[in-house]
UniProtKB/TrEMBL annotation:
InterPro entries: LC_transporter, PQ-loop_rpt. One of its GO terms (cellular component) is endomembrane system. One of its GO terms (molecular function) is L-cystine transmembrane transporter activity. The chain crosses the membrane at residues 12-35, 59-84, 96-114, 126-149, 161-181. It is a multi-pass membrane protein. It comes from the Eukaryota. Its main location: membrane. Keywords: Membrane, Repeat, Transmembrane, Transmembrane helix, Transport. It is found in: Endomembrane system. Pfam families: PQ-loop. This is Mitochondrial dynamin GTPase Msp1. It comes from Diatrype stigma.
Length: 222
C-alpha cells in the first residue's frame, strides 16, 4: 500500500517500530524454548516434566514477522530508499521510546538477578534463565497490547483511516484464533493443559489479537 501510494502518510512509525522489538523478543523466546537444553530442562522442572509446546512454525512465524516489521520501519526512516515522499510521523513517540528502552532495562535486570543466584539454586523455585526467557515473552505481550494505540489515536484525530490498511489487522485476528487452536490441540495430545499454563504469553497473545478492533477501512471512520 505504501509503495502504491508512494507515501507512508496516514500511518505512524510507532506501530512498526515497536512491533519489530516485540517480534524480535518473541523470536528469541521461541528459539530458546525450542532449542536450548537448559531452558527446556528448567521448563520441564516447572511443568510436570513436559516439554514446551513451542513448534518450529512458531520460530518461522516470529522470524518472518521480525524481518517484515524491520523492512516496514525502513520505509519511515529511509523513505528515499523506497522512492517514497517524506511524511510526518517518522519519529517514534516518547511513550513508545520509553517502552523500547525500558524493555532492554527489564531484561538486563532479570539477567543480573539470575547471574547472582548461587550455583546450587533450584531452577524450579529460584530465579533461573527461564525467567529471562519469560521476560522476553512479556515484552512481546506488552507490545501487542499497546502497538495499535498510537495508530488508533492518529486515526481518531484525523477522523480518517486513509493510509492504514485493514488487511494486517484481519490477518492478526485469524492468526490469533489459529494460535489458540494450536495450543489447545497440542495440550490435548499431551493430555495435560500445562501446555497453555506453561506458555501463558502465547495464549494471551492469541486472545489479544482476536479482540483487536476491526472497524477500520481505508476511508473515513464510520
Amino acid at each position: 500500500m505504501n509503495m502504491r501510494r508512494k507515501s507512508t502518510a496516514g500511518s505512524v512509525v510507532d506501530f512498526p517500530f515497536i512491533n519489530t522489538l516485540g517480534f524480535l523478543a518473541y523470536f528469541i523466546y521461541n528459539c530458546a524454548l525450542y532449542w536450548s537444553p537448559v531452558i527446556r530442562h528448567q521448563y520441564a522442572l516447572r511443568n510436570k516434566g513436559l516439554t514446551p509446546t513451542v513448534a518450529f512454525n512458531d520460530i518461522i512465524f516470529a522470524g518472518h514477522a521480525t524481518l517484515i516489521s524491520f523492512i516496514l520501519v525502513t520505509q519511515y526512516f529511509l523513505p528515499s530508499l523506497w522512492g517514497l515522499e517524506k511524511a510526518t510521523g517518522r519519529r517514534p513517540s516518547r511513550t513508545i521510546l520509553g517502552i523500547f528502552f525500558g524493555s532492554f532495562v527489564a531484561v538486563s535486570v532479570i539477567a543480573l538477578v539470575v547471574s547472582s543466584m548461587p550455583p546450587d539454586a533450584d531452577p524450579k523455585t529460584a530465579w533461573a534463565w527461564l525467567d529471562v526467557v519469560y521476560t522476553m515473552s512479556y515484552i512481546k505481550l506488552v507490545v501487542t497490547v499497546i502497538k495499535y494505540v498510537p495508530q488508533l489515536l492518529h486515526n481518531f484525530r484525523n477522523k480518517s483511516t486513509k493510509g492504514w490498511a485493514i488487511g494486517g489487522m484481519l490477518l492478526d485476528f485469524i492468526g490469533g484464533v489459529l494460535s489458540i487452536a494450536q495450543q489447545a490441540i497440542d495440550s490435548y495430545l499431551q493430555r495435560d493443559w500445562s501446555g497453555i499454563t506453561g506458555n501463558p504469553v502465547k495464549f494471551a497473545l492469541g486472545n489479544v489479537k482476536t479482540t483487536t478492533p476491526k472497524g477500520t477501512t481505508n476511508g473515513q471512520l464510520s
